[in-house]
Specification:
The protein is an alpha/beta fold. The chain is built from twelve helices and 13 strands. It has a seven-stranded mixed beta sheet with strand order 2-8-7-6-5-3-4, with helices on both faces. A four-stranded antiparallel beta sheet has the order 9-10-13-12, covered by helices on one side.
């Protein structure tokens, strides 16, 4: 590294985020089950909106994503002015940390939470702090025990990736009621659409207007299948939304993503098909893996976490050489586990057949 061009302290201590693999040299047929993408692809309405906009790509996007925010507000019965959109929800994570934390501050999260919480904290010179989980599930009391006068933000992913677990509305309220009001509680609800039929679950948006220090993040990458367009959004109190609008880029959400997002929101049939498919094949994966003697953990997402023991990496590599990609969990301190995305019927069956051949 050039001695004259040194990054600020702590940057080189960051382990970069590495996404799921999608190809391997020498293999032409792939089954990609490493990134929790929608098994059914994407909304055809979103695709048509995308194509229809082609002649307008030379124009700047609407800086406030006004049409998209209005549609989100209408469909979720929330205030449009309290919605901020981003280039994926991870941009909003980064903006929140940049706006509310810095050197000497702490960013708190659950032990097996999304890696970007830790990365974003380190990027601004803050200290990432993790709280232990109980049975791979967010532990509210453990989080509260880690709160100090340096804590500025607390992130919980609900449902959580990679564990697939969730905590109830009552637990979230307990966490908030016992949290100092100067700490921002961020509920990362990227997988919420898969859990909203659970009676005790909330994505948290109903709590934002009651508790100004609660923020909720959402994404179009999972249920809506728009991962490649990078589109996320969040619901915040007036004051937090105002802060984010001051620090985000003026055109942080591209025009095509905005147009496709509106169309995706109105393709209710695609959402229903995605939910039904996920329910069927999540149960299939759980049943098949369990029949092989592999321990699985309850999941309300579009993926399942499985414990392969000491053979986890060998099995992952064996699948990889066949062009089947699932996710290693060493970065989440779960080296004996592998995370498997729910795929198409053919992909799920091919995966299970391949695993059966490897472990027989």
């Amino acid at each position: 590294m050039n001695a004259l061009l040194q990054p600020k302290s702590g940057i080189m201590d960051i382990n970069p985020y590495i996404g799921g693999e999608a190809k391997i040299e020498g293999v032409t047929q792939f089954i990609r089950l490493a990134s929790n993408e929608n098994a059914l692809g994407y909304s055809k309405k979103a695709k048509q909106a995308y194509l229809n906009y082609a002649d307008e790509i030379y124009r700047y996007p609407n800086g406030g994503a006004d049409i998209l925010r209005d549609e989100l507000a209408k469909q979720n019965n929330i205030a449009a002015n309290q919605i901020v959109c981003g280039s994926g929800s991870e941009e909003l994570i980064s903006l929140l940390v940049r706006a509310y934390a810095g050197v000497g501050d702490e960013v708190l999260y659950s032990q097996h939470g999304f890696l970007m919480y830790k990365i974003s904290a380190k990027a601004v010179g803050a200290t990432p702090v993790s709280a232990p989980e109980t049975n791979l599930r967010t532990d509210v009391d453990a989080l509260l025990s880690k709160v100090t006068d340096k804590t500025k933000l607390l992130f919980i992913a609900n449902p959580n990736n990679p564990t697939g677990s969730y905590i109830s509305r009552d637990e979230i309220i307990k966490l908030r009621e016992n949290l100092p009001e100067n700490i921002l509680l961020v509920i990362d609800a990227a997988y919420s659409e898969f859990a909203e039929d659970l009676e005790d679950y909330t994505n948290g948006m109903d709590l934002v207007d009651k508790y100004p220090n609660i923020a909720v993040l959402r994404t179009f990458s999972k249920m809506y299948g728009l991962a490649g367009l990078r589109l996320g959004w969040g619901y915040f109190s007036d004051s937090v939304a105002d802060v984010l609008n001051r620090v985000r880029g003026p055109f942080n959400v591209n025009a095509v993503a905005q147009i496709a997002g509106v169309a995706a929101l109105n393709d209710h049939e695609f959402v229903e098909l995605s939910l039904a498919h996920n329910k069927t094949w999540l149960e299939y994966l759980n049943s098949e893996l369990t029949s092989f003697g592999i321990e699985t953990y309850p999941s309300v997402g579009n993926f399942i976490l499985a414990n392969f023991g000491s053979e986890a990496e060998n099995i992952r590599q064996s699948l990889r050489m066949q062009g089947i990609f699932i996710r290693q969990m060493g970065a989440y301190n779960l080296p004996e586990c592998l995370r498997i995305t729910v795929g198409t019927e053919e992909e799920n069956k091919s995966l299970c057949q391949a695993i059966a051949e490897i472990i027989k």
